[in-house]
Amino acid sequence: MSSSPAHALHPKEHEAPKVAAEPPPAAAAVREPATVAIIARWYRLNKGRLRAALIGAVSLVAFLVVWHLLTKYRVVFFVRFTNVPSPLDVYNSSTKAMRDPKFLMHVLLSCRRIIFGFALASLIAVPLGLIMGRFKLIHEVVFPVSEVLRPIPAIAWVPMAIMLWPTNEQSIVFITFLGSFFPILVNTLHGMALVDPVLVRAARCLGARETSIFREVYFPASLPHIFTGLTVGMGVAWVSLIAAEMISGQYGIGYFTWEAYSLVQYADIALGMIAIGVLGLTSSLLIRSAGRLAMPWGRT
Predict the structure, then answer these.
(1) Which stretches does the entry tag as region Disordered (predicted)?
(2) Cα-Cα-Cα-Cα dihedral of 91, 96, 98, 103, to 10°?
């Protein structure tokens, strides 16, 4: 008897489907210890960070509890908490503000002013500090002027800034620029002064030119102090910005906080202060993260 052509061409169609073989129990047992080892290694590497995060969370909760108790019982002990809003009042105010586009506009305008003023200060102060630290004549010319202007607080610059610049926006950015400029300049100068001269002489002995010495020796050695100046400058920039917005601004988180005080909206005052703190903390964390990327040799 001859078989049909279909059966001859496709002999495997009527075979039973093969079931995928399950891995032996030994393989699964090997995977589990490997996963546990990876988790344990990750925990050992991040143990310090996890501990710091836990302690930080506990301290924040303790702060909120103390704040709640002081406002609930209207404590008066040198400091009066009779009109201070409670954490719940501030939370209710924040939920309402998050749905208000005007509050978001205040935050965005403050962030824009900070970005412009801080970026301009960084682009001028860092190269100027490097040049002043390298060339004595330029240091002797610029340093006395900077030391006279540096102690002047940003709030004292507000009337002069209004006269110098045609709009309030430009004057506020200028004050923010001044607030961050001097900390960045001073720390860059300090970093240049601490560069090991042995490294400079070694680079010269190897035939490096001035530009190469600047790029390969002075700049990398000064980077930790430069990023310290950037972090400090960012904090001072926020202080200067809020002062300028409270005095001459019409928008911004500083103006929002001052307007809340004028309208006797205590919860909004606390909300504005917390927003300033969160924005300042976020910007400082971004600078520290950029510093870790720029200085991989400093990682542990």
Answers:
(1) 1-25
(2) -110
**Alpha carbons 239 and 245: distance in angstroms, whole number:** 10
**Which class would CATH give 87-298?**
mainly alpha
Q: Which residue has the tokens 């400093």?
A: 298
Reference 226, options 196, 255, 185, 267; nearest CA is 185
- Straight-line distance from the first to the last Cα atom of the chain, in angstroms, rounded to the nearest whole number: 80
Contact 242, 254 (CB under 8 A): yes
pLDDT tens for 194-225 read 988 888 889 888 888 888 888 889 999 999 99
> Which residues on adjacent β-strands are paired with residue 76?
80
What's the rounded mean pLDDT across residues 255-265?
Answer: 92
Helix (H, G, I), strand (E, B), or coil: what is residue 76? strand
What predicted TM-score, i.e. pTM, was given to this entire model?
0.81
Nearest-angstrom CA–CA distance, 97 and 192: 46
Quote the CA–CA distance of 169 and 3 in Å, as a whole number: 92
List of residues 6+ apart from 183 with CB closer than 8 A: 229, 232, 233, 236
Compute the distance between CA of residue 197 and CA of residue 210 in angstroms, rounded to an integer.
Answer: 14
Contacts of 154 (CB under 8 A, 6+ apart): 175, 178, 179, 236, 239, 240, 243, 244
- Rounded Cα distance between 4 and 13, Å, is 13
| Rounded CA separation 136/118 (Å) | 27
Number of CB atoms found within 10 A of residue 17's CB: 4
Query: Is the Cβ–Cβ distance between 271 and 280 less than 8 Å?
Result: no
Amino acid identity of residue 120, one-letter, is L
